[in-house]
Design goal:
By secondary structure, this protein is of the alpha/beta class. It is 43% helix and 17% strand. Helix 1 packs across helix 14.
């Protein structure tokens, strides 16, 4: 099949879950004999890069603005793709739903991955929330198939819109290897730090994590990894908060082998997101063999289940951190459970199988 992926910032992955999905899925589809094009944004991917792990890269401009970046690039990408005769296009992010007819009206089937309930994010003003509410409905009306990444989100679309969606989760690698040399540059040593990874936006609760850690009695460190392009005020708040405790380190966003090493060498992983569907960072932390302390939401419970140690506020998180510090046997048990859960439920090859089957179904309809 000739396939395209639209709606991410592009690959190599250097931002978030959609980008990781685009990279992991495209390379596997290429290895299975498919022709894959990934549409990329010019301020995230070098224009000199034409291919990555077998996938063709099509780099287009956009307006680098909090409210326009995704939708402008999505529209331009779909206008371009409409003339290329792709068998199926995977569009990521419900924000792109209104433009899907650009493709479907030319006979190109569209699978639309809507992610979580984006309208709940605190970074959006009233207009942004209203737009995302409209996009939820537009996804149901306009896409050939709506893809959800969590049972909670699938059930929401079924109850709210009476629509059956295709549930396909994210994936992760299962591995844990000591690598002190790779992590030393970040001021940490193997098994001597807690790791937090997320975009630094309010609903991901980095501030709560720092506040909770400040009350923990330990000489282990807390590594806050992440960034956000349009959250400068919040990032300044976090930096000020972290500056009051020398154990808290904020190295910014990290990707690739260094990120993998940090995941696989932490004592435990702290997950604090409260909005969205399946969070790739949590699955990756589980696959890396981490004891995961997880903010208690239905979506997070769905992913971590018996592998998670759940909390609901900063006080509970402080207590949970203190508990795992004093119980290495509990940490080892949760690490093993987490990796087994990823093997059973979040394997990238299985994820690729499910997308491939969906694309084959949609391509047959086109023909």
């Amino acid at each position: 099949m000739r396939l395209a992926i639209i709606g991410t910032r592009g690959i190599p992955a250097n931002y978030g879950g959609f980008e990781t999905l685009a990279e992991e899925l495209s390379k596997r589809l290429v290895s299975r004999g498919h022709d894959v094009t990934v549409y990329c944004r010019s301020h995230y991917v070098s224009r000199d890069l034409e291919e990555h792990r077998g996938a063709k890269l099509l780099i287009l401009p956009t307006v680098r603005h909090k409210y326009l970046d995704t939708v402008i690039h999505g529209l331009l990408s779909m206008l371009h793709a409409a003339t290329k005769g792709f068998d199926v296009v995977l569009v990521c992010n419900a924000a792109n739903a209104p433009f899907v007819p650009v493709l479907t009206w030319t006979g190109t089937p569209v699978a639309l991955n809507v992610d979580g309930l984006e309208r709940k994010r605190r970074k959006w003003n009233a207009l942004g929330r209203a737009y995302y509410s409209f996009c939820e409905q537009a996804s149901v009306w306009l896409a050939s198939e709506v893809v959800t990444d969590a049972r909670v989100i699938r059930d929401y679309y079924a109850e709210r819109y009476g629509t059956a969606t295709t549930l396909i989760a994210y994936g992760a690698e299962v591995a844990r290897n000591a690598d002190p040399d790779s992590i030393a540059k970040y001021g940490v040593t193997t098994e001597r730090y807690f790791l937090y990874v997320s975009r630094l936006e309010p609903e991901n609760n980095a501030a709560m994590v720092i506040e909770a850690f400040k009350n923990v009695k330990t000489d282990l460190r807390l590594l806050i990894v992440g960034d956000a392009p349009y959250a400068n005020e919040y990032k300044r708040k976090l930096a000020d908060l972290a500056s009051t405790d020398p154990r808290v380190l904020m190295p910014g966003a990290i990707y690739g082998p260094d990120m993998k090493a940090l995941q696989q060498n932490a004592y435990a992983y702290l997950h604090a997101t409260e909005v969205g569907g399946t969070h790739p960072a949590l699955i990756e932390a589980m696959g890396a063999g981490n004891c995961c302390l997880v903010y208690d939401t239905p979506e997070n419970r769905e992913v971590a289940a018996e592998a998670g140690f759940f909390y609901s506020d900063a006080g509970e998180l402080t207590d949970k951190i203190q508990e795992v510090l004093g119980d290495p046997a509990l940490v080892e048990s949760l690490r093993a459970t987490a990796q087994e859960r990823v093997r059973q439920n979040y394997d990238w090859e299985t994820v690729t199988d499910e997308y491939e089957q969906l694309f084959e179904k949609l391509a047959k309809v086109r023909k």
